Each structure stands twice: as C-alpha cells, then as structure tokens.
Amino acid sequence: MLLGACAKGQEAESAPPQLSEADYPGALATTLTGPDFMARQRLHGTARGREIGGEVVLQKQGDALTLIGLTPFATKAFVAKQQGAEVKVDVFAPEGKLPFPPRFMLLDVHRVQFLGLPGAPLADGTHRGEVGEERVTEVWQGGALLERRFERKDGKPGGEIVVTYEGGMKDGALPSRLRLVNGWFGYEIAVETLQWQPL
Q: Which residues, listed in sequence order, are joined to residue 60 by a DSSP beta bridge?
C-alpha cells in the first residue's frame, strides 16, 4: 500500500517543517504474514494543509518488503527496502518534496497490512487487543477486515490512526480502495490499488 507521495501545489521553501523519523512512534513487523504480492497504487490526500498524491509500487516476498515512490514522470522518488529488522532507504526526490520520511510510509504500510491482531480472520464483530505499545481495535465481518484503529498506550501522540477497507480486506489481499486517517499527525490518504499481482 502506501504511503508515500510527493507534495503538490507548494514549493519546498514555503512548505511546513518536515517531520523527522523520530517523530513517528512504532515498530515495523519483522515477520510479514500473508501472501507475497506486487501492487501498484494511486494515493491522494492532504497532509498539514497541503495536497499530496502520487503512485507507489509495493512488493512483498517472504519477510522482504520494498516500497517505491514514483514521481509524476514515473521515475523513482525513493526506494525503501526492509528485510527483517533492517531498513535501507534511498531518496532521489529533491529535499522537501516528500511530505514524510520514507520510514513513516513503511510504518503506515505495516499498520494497514501487517500490524493487526493475531488470529485472523476473526469472528464477526469488534475485537480489541495490544500490538507492541499500541491498542488496536478491529472490525470484522464475513471473514473480512473492515476497519483497524491504533492508539498509543501512553497517549503520546494523542488521537488515533484509522484505516478503513472498502469492501474489506480478506486473506491479506488489499481491497481496491482504502483510507488511512492519521489523527496523530493530521493527514489522511485515500489509496486506490490499480494492480495487484500475487507472486
């Protein structure tokens, strides 16, 4: 999935201060469950008063995850690769053109896809539990995940991250559309999966 995109509509010098990797709490999963896949996605949303959008390519193979952000010219804006606990990031976009560090985007991908409650699929209804330092709430129906919420146990930062899966996520395959609203940092992104290919 996502979650990276190039900022649009403002030059870097007028952009709000960039968030650093240390600002976004959370740990990446080192064991990635679910099927191997390659997905191309279109993103559109707002972040701290700016419109953001673009396309990404996401690939999972075993416990390896690669997220590639694309420029409007279909060249690489960044490449973030995770293997287990190791993350390597290469940024090709000019400074200030990415709304967040690529590790932020990897964390959002993990929250959408890998950092849920254990035992999926769960029974119909609302389920609550803890994943690391976060309280997680999930809504399931007919074997599909409809919504996932994250809240920090220490309240720092306050608020919730809410992921809504249009039509539900079943068997680890992303739906054609989902929305992530990050109440911690004031951004929201709609993600449209243009292509999904099992590997």
A: 37, 65
And the tokens for 183? 């109440």
Q: Angle at Cα 125 formed by Cα 121 and Cα 129, nearest 5°? A: 70
Distance CA 32, CA 52 (A): 28
- Provide the sign of the torsion angle of the four alpha carbons 134, 66, 180, 173, taken in this order: negative
State the DSSP H helix or E strand holding residue 97, giving kind and residue range, or none if neither.
Answer: none
Strand partners, 65: 60, 82
DSSP states along 115-184: SS-SSSSPPSEEEEEEETTEEEEEEEETTEEEEEEEEETT-SS-S-EEEEEEEEEBTTBPPSEEEEEETT
Q: Enumerate the β-bridge partners of residue 106.
A: none
pTM: 0.86
Query: Running along the chain, 199 residues long, what does each successive block of 10 average in pLDDT?
Result: 42 45 81 90 89 92 94 88 91 75 88 94 97 96 97 94 96 92 92 92
